[in-house]
Amino acid sequence: MTITITAFERSPDGGKGLARDTRVRWALEEVGQPYEVRLVSFRAMKEPAHLALHPFGQIPTYEEGDLALFETGAIVFHIAERHGGLLPEDANARARAITWMFAAVNTVEPAILELVTAKIVEGDKPWTTERLPLVVDRIHDRLKPLSARLGSADWLDGAFSAGDLMMVSVLLRLKPSGLINAYPNLAAYVARGEARPAYKRAFAAQLAVNAG
Taking the model in full, what pTM does it have? Predict the structure, then answer.
């Protein structure tokens, strides 16, 4: 059965890999699964056909036969469960990798998204100047223990896993702000993720859409 995902017709980041379809593309590339992409406009995302796939009117979605999924964490987990290469075979190591997937989207990403909101969505509000330092502090509250846990290791728990894929994807959002550079081991961790051939293919595929 053909896998079809949805992506922005024109990504807000211009194809820098920050749109969430990159995570799904990356996972599919890591496990060697071909896929098709259906591009959707911002208008189409709010129309009934897309809302039937994603009730919140966002991207990406994942379709395979009669299965339709939304939310990148759930999609990447499904891909990792169905195809080898993103989750360890050992049961305990597998559970830890899944834990890091949840940590990426539940613990680390919310603080980072708050920075995006403060700078872009609410950048013209009178409270922004006072709020920004608080937002940055909350990001450091997440990055410090993450940096300590990673230490000098290449990946979070042994070999590269879906947990690393999700964490690197989340941390990539910090590159424009430069905050990640305060933690050399995390910056190197992100660079290792970007250097993976599967990531490069996913990035190039998304960039090609936005460069066209």
Answer: 0.94
Q: What is the pLDDT along the chain (212 residues), one digit of tens a residue?
A: 899 999 999 888 777 788 899 999 999 999 999 999 999 999 999 999 999 999 999 999 999 999 999 999 999 999 999 999 999 999 999 999 999 999 999 999 999 998 877 666 565 666 667 778 888 899 999 999 999 999 999 999 999 999 999 999 999 999 888 999 999 999 999 999 999 999 999 999 999 988 76
CA torsion sign for 169, 174, 176, 181 is negative
Strand order in the sheet with 36-40: 36-40, 3-8, 61-64, 67-70
- Going by their DSSP bridges, the two strands 61-64 and 67-70 should be labelled as antiparallel
CB-based contact 126:187 (threshold 8 Å):
no
172: its two tokens: 């990539």
Task: Kindly tell me the burial class for residue 138, based on how many C-beta atoms sit within 10 Å of its own C-beta (0-12, 13-18, 19 or more).
Answer: middle
> Count H helices, E strands: the chain?
9, 4
- What CA–CA distances, in Å, run from 140 to 9, 56, 69, 146, 208? 34, 30, 32, 10, 34
Domains of the chain: 3-86+198-211 (3.40.30.10), 91-196 (1.20.1050.10)
- The CA-based dihedral angle spanning residues 63, 71, 150, 173, taken in that order and rounded to the nearest 10 degrees: 110
